[in-house]
Amino acid sequence: MRPLLLIPTFALLAAAPAPKTPTEIVAAAPAAAWRTIPAEDLLVMQLKGGQRVVIQLAPDFAPVHAANIRLLSKAKWWDGSAIYRVQDNYVVQWGKNESADPLPAGVVAKPPEEYARPVKGLPIHPLGYADAYAPKAGYALGWPVAYDPAGGTANLVHCYGYVGVGRDMAPDTGVGGELYAVIGHAPRHLDRNIAVVGRVLAGIEHLSSLPRGTEALGFYKERTSDVPVAWVRLASDVDAGERPSFQYLDTGSASFADFVRARANRKDDFFIRPAGGVDVCNAAVPVRPTPAG
Amino acid sequence: MRPLLLIPTFALLAAAPAPKTPTEIVAAAPAAAWRTIPAEDLLVMQLKGGQRVVIQLAPDFAPVHAANIRLLSKAKWWDGSAIYRVQDNYVVQWGKNESADPLPAGVVAKPPEEYARPVKGLPIHPLGYADAYAPKAGYALGWPVAYDPAGGTANLVHCYGYVGVGRDMAPDTGVGGELYAVIGHAPRHLDRNIAVVGRVLAGIEHLSSLPRGTEALGFYKERTSDVPVAWVRLASDVDAGERPSFQYLDTGSASFADFVRARANRKDDFFIRPAGGVDVCNAAVPVRPTPAG
């Protein structure tokens, strides 16, 4: 009994809905799958040229460094500072010399490592594909993580747009006054060697398109090449009228699981051969401005 | 019997040579480990602003597309063309509409796929670490490859700076008249879906630092935003006095094996915890201008 023979195969194929693209899956995610980021976790960097960069801090992974950054922002530490390093396929770095200027009250001068944290307490959703740098990769609390179930530690990952704390040689971990953002292929060798403290949510193009520095490590040769920073504030300290607000897709939601699966198996439109895999930095946690209303 | 107790531990440590950095290993590689790239495999793109980009073609992986590109260059196809798309963390794209302009004689209008090639005949040196996109990753003939030993195919990898052939929907594979270079995290989902035809050896910063396009997919909105290309030539057709020449480190050499090992296990200077792994795009095949003499 093969009743379906009455229906031509091509009609069956035509009737099958086209696989959704990752973008379509994100667009269709219900409101309940989105998490609004607290305003005190958003750092707004206004360049003197008028461009704006918005960074989400990661206090669940680097609480002392995040607290330092909040205090530095409240003390207007970065107002009048500059971007002074742009290294192609690597990082953009900005800030002010932590050892030359007195630190504001409350800032911890020698923060603990915060390069990794216990897996315990983290609701990790495994990526499900191999990672070249760690036993496992996945997502937790809206962030990409690499982790070692045996060792019991997890770390934030140096993906494109992720923000780390500049430091000198070990065991110094950096105060948080000099920060960098990744503008190239994920430099995962920095994982667990530097405190990752957040990610750029908006405006990364104002950093990634800057002229590359010509000195070693991409430092600008002349101070006249530096890109001036007008001010840096927590969103909670920005006037309500121009306060940014962002949401991320809950990494425990069904929509996010669908999104990762679609990123690993592109079948839409253009694609001929789904990869059947994806790396954790190539399935970036979706973010969006908080919808009005 | 513990004779070494006579020697203080710190002295032993001080006597141990510091591990070489990847850069030091490359600098110490013998001349015999370097391979000079034939001038007919080098494509020179001169922007109207004076910046120069040098691309190495990959005829071992995409012979028909590489032959097309050589013919297009000899026919001055790209002279007066433009860069018209810059998408952040993705690609810069340039060229001329393949369907609007008549193709020069000899150019194959419908090239075969060339998205992968047989493993057979490729001297592959395995990376030795997991790959999220393919059963194996490694290097062959100076290029990063992903491969499937069971299926018997290997493909060039979409790493930072790698150049692919723009195409329309399948089964079109593109002529080679519209090219793109990767300027972000390796978009490995494009592997085996597009012909990778080479890589940028020099001048990638002239592409990666361009203003991002504001239209969908990073296209420039206004034609006045386009970045004009003065000319494109094979190095073999450039005047001897300004002809570029480059070498790559033989991916079968002991120096290259040491380099990959060091990239996967950074112990020098700054590093506290070696990753114990690396992805194939984060251990990029070293290239250099051919030394004088």
From TrEMBL, chains A, B:
InterPro entries assigned: Cyclophilin-like_dom_sf, Cyclophilin-type_PPIase_dom
Any one GO MF annotation of this record: peptidyl-prolyl cis-trans isomerase activity
Pfam families with a match to the protein in the record: Pro_isomerase (PF00160)
Keyword field contains Signal: yes
Signal peptide as annotated in the record: 1-20
Keywords: Isomerase, Signal
Superkingdom field: Bacteria
Gene3D superfamilies: Cyclophilin-like
Transmembrane regions: none
Residue stretches making up the PPIase cyclophilin-type domain: 45-215
Protein name (database record): Peptidylprolyl isomerase
Gene source species: Sphingomonas sabuli
